[in-house]
């Protein structure tokens, strides 16, 4: 019980139920973000903010605190920035301090390392890495994924493209390993939903700055040539996690075809324009607090903390084991402004969730598309389903 | 034009709906996307007027005498007020930011408004148009209900997942009941003994014993061929005799009928798409449902529990209230 610190403080909230004695329970979480050095993104609008993910943590903690105030529960969330070199030491510090709920924003390799370090001491929430192997061969029993997987993102887009009858794809992948993993997810999605990849090309990252003054002059001639003479296709699908080229594709392709994937119509977990299912309230709460619009990382960290809050509410001050059991049980459900209740897949620890298809300033659609049916949960049409999993937890 | 249309009473299709009052009742439907309120003649179900000039109207209610219509104009951040007979706009009420749903005290005053963006319930005197109190509640307050004796007003907060019972004299919270995820609507039985709270994401209706503030049962739903995640209870209404409750199930496109004596679901009625809120006709013989995604309302005969007709209204109908015409 070292992770629970009952504090015998009187509650200052005047709104509590009178006559009910509440022993205060404190839930300690941390968000551990790894900032790896690397080139700046193509667009300065995608520059990382110092509070990336942490702002989502602040909102999640505040949301938990309001329910907690009525329940005699307090929530404390520590935020930690690490480099790839210091991250394991930082994780150890958190574990030594008895923090039992740790949200990570790290790449796939680091995420597994951190989960192994945590062992049975902590539950790790992956809010950053979309790599499918983390949900497959490299899955861990103490590792839950609030970030959607590559397979979910690719399936979300594929359903829409197939619904639109844009089934001939020109797939362009980047040269980084994460790009190739994403391209594999698109190949899988095409086969799953009946699309055809008619042409594949790789865009080599030759290094150098991604932004230069008047860089568009060269781009304007490079991208059309790169996409020239592709087999007849309905849509260009870009797999570019590394952010090297995809943003330059729209309006620069040789053929007049729409771009989707890492640019154009983009599958992602969140978007500042998302307003359905009460999301407007979330956006305004976030913006009031953070003085900026939310990114995927913020929403994903918020979800992780709300999972903890929801479990704390429902187990009514439950200890670590009770919390963990509840989170993975069929009774768990999370309301997260996606129009339905979200829960964890028991086969790989992935949070099942609808995926937004965003187009610049708007949310163009939300997958799963209504036409794709499933015998258990329609959300399980996205990503790796129970019979396909390579995870043995 | 409104006057002319009101004279159309003897349409064959509608004679089965009600008796033949000299003056037909009126149905007011708020259209969230249409930025309007559609007014229908309850006998002919013809649109007799459209009130415009509001942004994102959602919650809608009427004064006990049926003469005044109140509308939560969410994006105007105020409550707009209309004369039910002339449709003339009366002075607005302050509401606090982003009002979504409200409930009027049984006496007709004050109005209790849920402010989604500010985690408060605003209490407004409808006569003096003054804010009487702001009560801090949970995150994203939404559903509002009032006990038949007017002593307790209930607010549900969508992210806190609680029903907060507020004393209408002191404006203090006297009890909090934890319910399932995203509670949307609260309604008492006419004798005040039971409070129903719907939970959209949790997929349940909590039955709360008001004497003990304990949940005595959680009603769940099951419709063949519909995945559980689509069964999302939203609006709920209890018949005046306290025997039945109707629950709008959102994207399941069904209204569930609950027998209050046994607290069992007895029927599922197919209505329009994304059924959201419900409202009875003044005599209680009919129930109107707003179907947000099919831009219509459905009419349910509460004696036979049959859906008799669906009528197009404005874009994305949200709330509905029916009043007696003079």
TrEMBL record, chain A:
The keyword Membrane does not apply. Residues 1-23 form the signal peptide. CDD domains: PBP1_ABC_transporter_LIVBP-like. Keywords: Amino-acid transport, Signal, Transport. Transmembrane segments: none annotated. GO terms for biological process: amino acid transport. The keyword Transport applies. Coiled coil: none annotated. Residues 55-357 form the Leucine-binding protein domain. Belongs to the leucine-binding protein family. This is ABC transporter substrate-binding protein.
């Amino acid at each position: 019980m070292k992770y629970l610190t009952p504090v015998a403080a009187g509650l200052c909230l005047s709104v509590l139920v009178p006559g009910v004695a509440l022993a205060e329970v404190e839930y300690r979480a941390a968000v551990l973000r790894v900032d790896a050095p690397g080139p700046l993104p193509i667009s300065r609008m995608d520059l990382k903010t110092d509070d990336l993910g942490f702002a989502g943590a602040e909102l999640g903690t505040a949301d938990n605190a309001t329910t907690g105030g009525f329940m005699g529960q307090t929530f404390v969330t520590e935020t930690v920035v690490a480099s790839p070199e210091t991250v394991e030491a930082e994780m150890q510090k958190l574990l030594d301090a008895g923090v039992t709920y740790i949200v990570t924003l790290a790449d796939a390799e680091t995420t597994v390392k951190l989960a192994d370090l945590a062992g049975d001491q902590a539950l790790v929430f992956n809010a950053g890495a979309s790599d499918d192997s983390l949900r497959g061969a490299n899955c861990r029993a103490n590792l839950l994924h609030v970030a959607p997987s590559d397979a979910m993102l690719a399936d979300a887009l594929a359903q829409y493209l197939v619904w639109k009858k844009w089934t001939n794809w020109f797939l362009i992948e980047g040269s980084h390993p994460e790009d190739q993993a994403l391209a594999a997810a698109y190949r899988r999605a095409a086969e799953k939903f009946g699309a055809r990849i008619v042409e594949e090309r790789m865009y080599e990252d030759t290094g150098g700055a991604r932004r230069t003054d008047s860089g568009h002059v060269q781009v304007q001639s490079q991208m059309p040539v790169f996409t020239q003479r592709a087999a007849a296709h309905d849509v260009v699908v870009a797999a570019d996690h590394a952010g090297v080229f995809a943003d330059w594709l729209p309006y620069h392709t040789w053929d007049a075809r729409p771009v989707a994937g890492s640019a154009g119509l983009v599958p992602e977990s969140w978007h500042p324009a998302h307003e359905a299912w009460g999301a407007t309230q979330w956006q305004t709460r976030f913006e009031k607090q953070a003085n900026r619009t939310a990114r995927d990382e913020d929403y994903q960290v918020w979800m992780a903390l709300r999972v903890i809050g929801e479990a704390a509410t429902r187990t009514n001050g439950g200890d670590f084991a009770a919390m963990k059991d509840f989170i993975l049980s069929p009774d768990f459900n999370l309301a997260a402004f996606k129009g339905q209740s979200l829960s964890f897949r028991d086969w790989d620890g992935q949070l099942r969730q609808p995926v937004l298809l965003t187009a610049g300033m708007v949310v163009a659609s939300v997958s799963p598309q209504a036409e794709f049916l499933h015998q258990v949960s329609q959300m399980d049409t996205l990503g790796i389903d129970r019979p396909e999993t390579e995870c043995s937890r | 034009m409104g006057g002319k249309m009101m004279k159309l009473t003897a349409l064959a299709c509608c004679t089965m709906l009600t008796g033949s009052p000299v003056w037909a009742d009126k149905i007011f439907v708020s259209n969230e996307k249409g930025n309007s309120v559609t007014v229908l003649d309850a006998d002919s179900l013809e649109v007799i007027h459209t009130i415009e000039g509001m942004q994102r109207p959602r919650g809608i209610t009427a004064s006990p005498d049926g003469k005044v219509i109140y509308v939560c104009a969410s994006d105007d951040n105020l409550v707009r007020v209309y004369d039910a007979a002339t449709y003339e706009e009366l002075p607005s009420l302050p509401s606090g930011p982003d009002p979504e749903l409200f409930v009027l005290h049984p006496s007709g005053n004050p109005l209790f408004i849920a402010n989604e963006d500010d985690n408060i319930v605003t209490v407004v005197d409808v006569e003096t148009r003054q804010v009487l109190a702001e009560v801090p509640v949970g995150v994203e307050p939404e559903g509002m209900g009032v006990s038949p004796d007017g002593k307790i007003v209930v607010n549900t907060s969508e992210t806190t997942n609680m029903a907060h019972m507020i004393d209408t004299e002191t404006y203090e919270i006297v009890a909090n009941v934890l319910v399932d995820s995203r509670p949307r609507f609260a309604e008492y039985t006419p004798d005040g003994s039971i409070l129903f709270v719907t939970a959209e994401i949790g997929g349940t209706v909590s039955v709360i014993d008001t004497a003990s503030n304990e949940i005595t049962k959680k009603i769940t739903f099951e419709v063949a061929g519909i995945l559980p995640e689509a069964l999302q209870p939203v609006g709920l209404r209890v018949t005046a005799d306290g025997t039945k409750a109707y629950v709008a199930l959102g994207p399941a496109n069904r209204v569930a009928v609950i027998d209050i004596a046994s607290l069992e679901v007895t029927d599922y009625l197919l209505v329009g798409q994304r059924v959201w809120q419900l409202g009875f006709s003044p005599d209680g013989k009919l129930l109107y449902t707003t179907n947000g995604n099919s831009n219509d309302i459905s009419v349910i005969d509460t004696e036979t529990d049959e859906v008799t007709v669906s009528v197009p209204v404005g874009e994305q109908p949200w709330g509905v209230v029916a009043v007696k015409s003079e």
